[in-house]
Write a structure and sequence with these properties.
8 helices
Length: about 200
């Protein structure tokens, strides 16, 4: 994949970075922790300009959040609540649980978007609850841009400094992202278990 990413950027330049970062948000298996360090390495070789690399990476990342954001807006809280009330018992999920989660996102959504854009594994998925909770698009774009810009800067800067060894960034960030995802999945499992126990005890 590294060779394909590098070849695309070599042939398309800054437009290649933009396209790859849009795709990375829609198809998470294409990792930003490979794309941006590779672009940073290209800047270190003198083939690209580092600030422009960061700008295009940030812009692509922000544009890539929009499909899932609008999917969340279209699906909406009410539809999900209705679905949970009808079918959610199989997952011990109720409509009021959805409303509580939505209320939480209303209170903490800006921080979730800002810092979540720097967390591999969930950075692209955050757009869905942001859309479902009807976070205003300008606010969503601003916080996405800040978080994405910091993430793109860190990755491109690492690639710039590491030079030929830029692929080491993915080697370190990749396992970390799996750990983060594992912790989040464990938290979800614990939540489901506690919900079932609470229901069994009649609380």
């Amino acid at each position: 994949m590294a060779d394909w990413v590098q070849n695309l950027m070599d042939s398309m330049g800054y437009l290649g970075i933009l396209l790859l970062m849009i795709l990375e948000n829609v198809f998470p298996p294409l990792p930003s922790e490979l794309i941006m360090p590779s672009a940073g390495f290209a800047a270190a070789r003198g083939d690209m300009n580092l600030p422009l690399v960061i700008l295009m990476g940030t812009l692509g990342s922000v544009l890539g959040t929009l499909p899932l954001y609008y999917l969340g807006r279209v699906f909406g809280e009410e539809r999900l609540v209705a679905w949970a009330d009808k079918y959610g018992k199989w997952l011990t999920l109720r409509g009021q649980d959805i409303r509580k989660a939505d209320d939480w996102f209303d209170r903490h959504g800006t921080k979730a978007v800002l810092f979540g854009r720097m967390v591999p594994g969930i950075r692209s998925l955050l757009s869905l609850p942001a859309g479902m909770s009807e976070m205003p698009l300008p606010k969503f774009l601003i916080y996405s841009a800040i978080g994405s810009g910091l993430w793109a800067s860190a990755l491109a800067g690492a690639g710039y400094m590491l030079g030929d060894n830029y692929e080491q960034v993915e080697q370190y960030v990749g396992p970390a992202s799996k750990i983060i995802l594992g912790v989040l999945l464990l938290a979800v499992v614990v939540w489901f278990v506690r919900r079932k126990r609470a229901q069994a005890s009649g609380h």
